[in-house]
Specification:
By secondary structure, the chain is an all-alpha fold. It is built from 19 helices and no strands. Helix 3 packs across helix 13, helix 9 crosses helix 13 and helix 18 packs across helix 19.
Length: 572
């Protein structure tokens, strides 16, 4: 990728650079790298050394943000959907994210596989069975008590959380960055997406602050997902009886081991390790999905998929702006615990996924970008939940049950393995599912590390190996700190959810700026295009007038010549 790095003035050249020896720290952007590192290291130390205090602080912040800002997240994410549809469907759709004659860097299949694996992968495996089952057992207040009503609600609400809303969040960031990088030739960095608003100020402290927010948010967002991954892996190992104590020590060991694998992958780069892993992920996920479809209640799944799509489309507008206020405090609490968490989680992932899909989207038009990012992964996600969630609900409503505890609780960490255990070849398929989780874990970690490294290196698309390793280790350390600070049981999940919502708040303001900056840039380019078209039309009209005038002169000269010849003939 040929995006330029941030330029240095001649006076910035050090003696080491002049002599050919380059310091390892010369590749970093100091105003981004050091503040981000200090914040992350301080959190890791605080969460591990002062565990009890960290739990209290996280709990307090969670209550303040969720109780006071649920309406903000709900309205904002819905507006992001409107923005994504506006730029994709409207007059800006033909703008190329690159030079006018540039072809896409990656084929359609690899492109979709990479953005899907990076954007959703590990979360789909964790929540594929657990979320619809949780919604079925404990629906939002106001939902009918019958099994049919709870079943439809469970799938529609899950579709809301994983449908066009999260991908619209990714569109906002990815499109702004892709336009700045591929169209305007700026370095790969969040700051340059806001250049239309801030001008040259993005080169200084303002830009450093924007990228620092993106780096910290990305590290915590990816670490949150890594925490979900190890919770599920340890639960699966315990459920199968392959380990006797699937507690915190095992989870820490898993994070360390898988982070090492992610480090190896990220060192090889986007074109090799990340691309190959993404394609392997998609193949393995597809095989697991087809297996559950065939071995499970196939007809029930297919009928439910079609019905749930219709119910989702019918209720999409109302659900998009639902804060639970009409059901009182219980309704607001339910929406905050699920929907607000998801909106915060997706926003915390937006810097990472947005920059990553911008990096791999050179040569696409705006319309291709929005369609590919917004619609295709959404449909695949719906198919995934229809198969896994539909199978779980079918077992609870028609089959032998057993996925819900006697106390009415769902084992969120182990729900997938409980379902697979009811199908043929349970142990083998469970092993394949664990491998899939590990691969998604590695893909998320290495993709996130690459993006963070690019941001902390001032937009360098090929940052050095040492910094890739550093950021991969940083994400693993934050994931470990979150698990240690959260304790055990459901509190682990709660802490991870809280971390996602907290880190999303500052970056949500950056995303509002991105929408404004993108709209401003697209309008400016559209006006320039119209001006160029008018100029071409004027030049064409002038050329036609000149041509007609010259032809008139030639015709007049020919006519006068003919008249003079006739006079001469008569005179003779």
């Amino acid at each position: 990728m040929a995006a330029p790095q941030m330029a240095k003035s001649p006076g910035d050249t050090s003696d080491q650079e002049k002599s050919g020896a380059r310091s390892p720290l010369a590749s970093i952007a100091p105003g981004v790298f050091w503040p981000s590192t200090i914040i992350i290291v301080a959190f890791v130390l605080y969460a591990t050394v002062f565990k009890n205090s960290a739990q209290d602080v996280i709990s307090t912040v969670q209550e303040e943000i969720i109780s006071g800002l649920g309406w903000y997240y709900t309205a904002l994410v819905s507006l992001f959907v409107i923005f994504a549809l506006w730029v994709g469907i409207g007059r800006f759709g033909d703008i190329k994210l690159g030079k006018d004659d540039e072809r896409p860097e990656f084929g359609m299949g690899s492109w979709l596989a990479m953005l899907f694996a990076a954007g959703m992968g590990i979360g789909l495996v964790f929540w594929g069975v657990a979320e619809p089952l949780n919604h079925f057992v404990s629906p939002r207040p106001g939902v009918g008590e019958g099994e049919a009503a709870r079943s439809e609600f469970a799938m529609v609400q899950t579709f809301l959380h994983w449908g066009i809303h999260p991908w619209a969040i990714y569109v906002v960031v990815g499109l702004a960055v892709a336009y700045a990088v591929h169209r305007k030739g700026r370095p790969i960095s969040i700051r340059w997406a806001l250049e239309p608003l801030f001008g040259d100020r993005v080169k200084g402290a303002w830009g450093d602050a924007i990228d620092t927010v993106a780096v910290v948010g990305t590290v915590f967002g990816v670490a949150t997902s890594l925490g979900f991954g190890v919770l599920q892996i340890s639960a699966g190992l315990g459920f199968q009886g392959w380990v006797t104590d699937p507690g915190t020590p095992l989870r820490v060991a898993l994070i360390i081991g898988i982070t090492l694998l992610a480090t190896i992958s990220v060192v090889t780069g986007v074109g090799k390790g990340i691309k190959w892993l993404s394609n392997i992920n998609m193949g393995l996920a597809g095989a697991l999905m087809v297996f559950v479809l065939v071995a499970g209640p196939t007809l029930f799944i297919l009928n439910g998929f079609v019905e749930d799509i219709g119910a989702y489309l019918q209720n999409l507008l109302a659900l998009s702006f639902d804060t639970g206020a009409s059901q009182g405090a219980e309704g607001t609490a339910w929406v905050s615990g699920w929907t607000v968490f998801y909106w915060g989680w997706w926003i915390s992932w937006a810097p990472f996924v947005g920059v990553f899909i911008a990096r791999i989207s050179r040569g696409r038009t705006v319309r291709e970008f929005v369609t590919g990012v917004l619609l295709v992964p959404t449909l695949l996600t719906f198919v995934w939940f229809a198969i896994f969630g539909g199978s779980a609900i079918h077992r609870e409503t028609v089959g032998d049950g057993g996925l819900v505890g006697e106390d009415g609780a769902v084992g969120t960490d182990s729900a997938l393995f409980q379902l697979l255990d009811t199908l043929p070849g349970g142990a083998f398929v469970a092993g394949a599912a664990l491998l899939l989780i590990v691969l998604f874990f590695v893909t998320s970690s290495d993709s996130g590390s690459y993006v963070v490294d690019v941001l902390a290196s001032g937009g360098d698309p090929e940052p050095p190996t040492w910094s890739r390793v550093f950021w991969c280790a940083a994400e693993g350390a934050v994931a470990i700190a979150l698990l240690i600070a959260s304790g055990t049981g459901t509190s682990s999940l709660s802490t991870l959810q809280t971390a996602a919502i907290i880190t999303a708040l500052p970056f949500s303001l950056v995303m509002i700026g991105m929408c404004l900056a993108t709209a401003k840039s697209f309008r400016r380019e559209h006006h320039a295009y119209l001006a160029a078209q008018r100029k071409k039309q004027e030049e064409r009209l002038i050329d036609q007038a000149v041509t007609a005038f010259e032809e008139g002169l030639e015709n007049g000269a020919s006519s006068n010549g003919a008249k003079d010849g006739a006079v001469d003939a008569r005179t003779t």
